[in-house]
Amino acid sequence: MNVLTSIAVLGFLIFFHEMGHFLAAILQGIYVDGFSIGFGPSIIKKKINNITYSFRAFPLGGFVSFPDEDQNGIKANDTNLLKNRPLFQRIIVISAGVFANLLLAYIILIVNINTVGIQYDPDPGILVLAIQSDKAASKAGLEPGDQILKIKDNTLGIGDEAVNLLVKEIQQSSEKSINIEILRNNKLKEINITPQNIDGKGTIGAQLQPNIRQETYKPKNILELFKFVNKEFSSLLSKTIDGYKGFNNKFLIYRSTIKRACKNCRNWCSII
Predict the structure, then answer these.
(1) CA angle, corner 55, sides to 53 and 61, nearest 5?
(2) pLDDT class of 72 with cuts at 50, 70, 90
(3) pLDDT score at 32
(4) What pLDDT, on the 0 to 100 scale, is given for residue 162?
């Protein structure tokens, strides 16, 4: 069931993405001759107004196809061919799929906030979700549900910044005892914990998250709704861009490594 659900969600995302390309072309009067969800042999296919719509056997992709001049008697200089359109119009068609997905994400945020509600800002400190047995946190007596408020007499803030600060302190304190203050059952308690050294970094074997309340509240008006949606959307977009940057950096490192390996291989071959 999970596999079918994942395929259905993926198919919907692909449909929305390809619909962006499709509409960007159609609304500009650019010829389109195919709109397909999936790859492989067609399961369902229908031609309407010289455009073939199809659903194919493997719904793990999709495409919008554009005719060449040798199809349907179209002249090579026809201005409605994609390749004959000005650059900015072609850019609109190419980028429309991404913008369609961004629009979908924005719509989902609106629906989610209207139905589920807005989470309250995190309370101070960090919540311990789970503890691994025989790890530093377990040995020190840390328990799921504890709220970590201080580390080394430094008060932790709220949200992701507090988690990042705590993780950084732990990683830099490998095999060194550190003092933390926790809140358990409305009582303050101090614990000394010694992070274990794994690959040169300290770890304690605990799953942490910002101290977020479970309750939510509905936006008071449309202004508050869109203010929160814009905030969440900006955060999502920023994290996505950072993820792509990280992927690109890894790709460049990988490519550089391959180039060096190939160069070394040529050197070895010449020596042999």
Answers:
(1) 105
(2) low
(3) 93
(4) 86
Region of 73 (left: φ > 0; alpha: ψ -120 to 50; beta: rest) is: left
Residues 255, 247: Cα–Cα separation, whole Å: 12
Tell me the one-letter amino acid at 54: S
Q: Classify residue 266 by burial, with Cβ atoms within 10 Å: 0-12, 13-18, 19+.
A: exposed
Question: HSE (CB half, 13 Å, CA atoms) of 248?
Answer: 6
Active site residues: 18
CA atoms within 13 A on the CB side of 241: 7
Domains and CATH numbers, the chain: 2-115 (no CATH), 123-213 (2.30.42.10)
d(CA 245, CA 243): 5
Paired tokens of 211: 């101290």
Counting other chains too, the contacts that 189-196 makes at CB distance below 8 Å and 24 or more residues apart are 191/140, 191/141, 191/142, 192/140, 193/136, 193/137, 193/140, 193/142, 194/136, 194/140, 195/136, 195/170, 195/171, 196/135, 196/136
CA distance 114 to 222: 10
pTM of the complete model: 0.61
